Amino acid sequence: MKEAKLTEKIMFRLLPAQILLSAVGVVNGIVSSLFAGNYVGVKAMAAVGLYSPVNLFLIALNNMFVSGATILCGECIGRNDKDGAKSIFSLDITIAGVFAIVATIGHLIYGSLGAFIGTVDDPEVGRMLCRYVFGQAVGIIPLVLGNQLSSFLSLDNRIKRTVTASLVYIGVNFVLNYIFIALMGMEVLGLALAPSIGLWVFFFIQIPPFIKKDAVIRYSMKEINWHEAAKILKIGIPGAANSGYNAIRGIIVNSLILTYVGGVGISAFTAANSIMSFFWQVPSGMLMVSRMMISVSVGEEDRKSLTDTMRVALFRFIPLAFAMSLFVIIMAVPFTRLYFRDPSDPVYMMTVRGFQILPVCLPLSIICTHFSCYWQSSDRHLLVHILSALDGLVGVVACSALLMPAMKLNGLYVANVLNGLIAPVFVLIYACIYNKHFPGKIDELMSVPPAFGVPVYGRIDITVHDMESVIGISGTLQEFCEKSHIDKRRAFYASLCLEEMVGNVIEHGFTKDKKKHSVHVCVACKRETLIMSVKDDCVPFNIEQRLKMIDKNDVAKNIGIRLVSGIASSIHYQNILGMNVLTIRFDGKAS
Question: Topology of domain 457-586, per CATH?
Answer without folding.
Answer: Heat Shock Protein 90 (3.30.565)
